[in-house]
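Support request from a user on the community tier.

User writes: "When I paste my structure tokens into the form, the page sometimes reloads and wipes my input. The last time it worked, I copied everything first. Here is what I submitted, just in case something in the input itself triggers the reload:"
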């Protein structure tokens, strides 16, 4: 299995994030299903303490970059979603 590189944007926690995180935590503690609105808010992922994670590869802000023996991403800063304050690059196996 090979390695994949990804790029996501992060919108830092705000009041909406804190309310949704409280709802998530309450559902987990009560051992009940998390409501679809809460799941959608967090992109169907466990909440990240850094904030809301946005898959930038699905936006116009990120393009694949390929040349001889090089693969990567180009991030168009001016096209990032307005609330994104952090760009995270990570590798997964």
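"...and here is what came back when it finally went through:"
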């Amino acid at each position: 299995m090979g390695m994949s590189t990804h790029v996501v944007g992060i919108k830092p926690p705000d009041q909406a994030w804190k309310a949704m995180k409280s709802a998530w935590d309450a559902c987990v503690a009560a051992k009940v299903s998390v409501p679809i609105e809460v799941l959608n808010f967090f992109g169907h992922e466990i909440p990240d303490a850094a904030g809301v994670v946005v898959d930038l590869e699905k936006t116009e802000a990120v393009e694949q970059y390929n040349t001889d023996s090089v693969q990567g991403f180009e991030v168009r800063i001016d096209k990032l979603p307005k609330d994104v304050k952090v760009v995270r690059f990570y590798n997964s196996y």
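Agent notes: The reload is a front-end session timeout and is unrelated to the input. The beta strands are 4-11, 52-55, 62-67, 70-75, 86-92. The CA atoms of residues 3 and 15 lie 36 Å apart. Escalated to web team.
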